Amino acid sequence: MNANFASIMPQVVATWCEAKGHEVTLTCYTGFEDLKDELPDKPDLVFVSAFTQAAHLSYALSNYYRSQGAVTAIGGPHARCYPDDAQRFFDYVLGFTDKDTINDLLSDCAPHRPIGMHLHAKAQPTQLPGVRERWKFIEATLRKAPAIKIVPMLGSVGCPYTCSFCIDADVPYDPLDLDVIKEDLRFLMTKYKRPKVGWHDPNFGVRFDDIIQAIEEVVPDDRIDFIAESSLSLLSEKHVARLAKVGFKALLPGIETWNDLGGKSKTGSTVGMEKVRKVSDHVNMILRYVPYVQANFVLGLDTDDGPEPFELTKQFLDLCPGAFPAFSLLTSFGRAATLNLDYQRDGRVLAFPFHHLNNNHAMNVRVKNYEWIEFYDHVIDVTKHACSSSMMWRRLKANRPSISGGLNLIRSLSSEGNGRIRFYTDIRRRLTEDNGFRAFFEQESTALPQFYIDRIRDDLGPFWEWLPEGGLHHDPHAYLRSQNAEALVQVAVKGRDRVSTGVTLAGAPYK
Ligand code: SF4
Questions:
Q1: Which domains, ranges and CATH numbers included, belong to the chain?
Q2: Closest residue to atom 6 of ligand 1, CA basis
Q3: pTM over 0.85
């Protein structure tokens, strides 16, 4: 399925570069191909777009291409979250990126070493090339997808909600051009008999009537299958019925926790079992209209304490067997959210290498209200409950004979279900048997357990040799340091006679 989750921005950057007259090759690496066979020879400029999980591979690729004389740039979530670290290994590091940002880079296109240049637009772009313009890159990417091919589309950027852990919480909500969206939907119906569209909006349907009306205008009922991530607060029965009528087949609401974030799930200040009942009624209502619902949870939030949050999740699953639960371990991705400053200030961020920051393999925030072993016991228990044979059977029955039921079964049996139980059980065992392993988790030692290094080496394969010196480790407090340095520089700039000291202060440690 991985090619179906390919991001939109690499296709956008490729389109903008082509429009400037450049010859462009776009490679979507899904994790299974022999990457060396996929890479173009002797490019002048290489853009990498990566999540933090792929940071080490990105650093290795940059090093490899720089050795061949190319200039390199990185964008995407990793560049937004860890710009200072990425600047060590790329000539350009891109934050918010619009067409002007790319044009500036193309005009300059020079090596910036040892520290790369940080470029960013003032805000997220609100105009992007649509599906028609990106089509050649979409088509090439989806050739790698199996029978199911999901075309990525975007109806908006940002989110009006303020979930403290989320990278989109500080990004103002902006809808994209509805005329482009309508034209893209018409275009897609000429390309596939029954297209499938995955909306990449952080929160689909904030301006519900506008976007749904645009879809209804051009798409005959149930002619395209749609998938979207949306808050429960936006999914009233009236809205869900309209979504189902136009063809929505999968919705992914975020529940996150039973003790907080009532705004997005429309449960207000209700917490605990009462919230479980309200949310399960809501999700069961959605399942009467839409065959596939994935309920997202974050495990280890500071508001959770004791066994209760996990027991409540199990009760929710019993009340809502048709929903597939997706669990993420709380992870602090550098500058993704201002909340991360608190974790860094409190000394709670563990220096797990980027490669393991995929919301599951490592939890890089010391959990507030649990001992590590106790926490992993709860995580294993709730995951086992979600993937137990009785739960799978109940889920299959609730999903009726459908693709959704099959997909849920595969997810439960695959690395996402049983694979995670095995992984968490192994981590728990190491925590009890290996003092060095436990000491790293308890922040009594900074020595990274060999287990994590070996996994990176295995996963990087031949690119391990290209991982630049110092690339394995990063400063987990870089965000806090930069904030304090900026505050000091501001103080220096205010008192004009001290301006010159500002530069020195910018490098001062944060304590
Ligand atoms: S509702 Fe979703 S997208 Fe919006 S801030 Fe919360 S987690 Fe992020």
A1: 2-119 (3.40.50.280), 147-251 (3.30.750.210), 480-511 (no CATH)
A2: 163
A3: yes
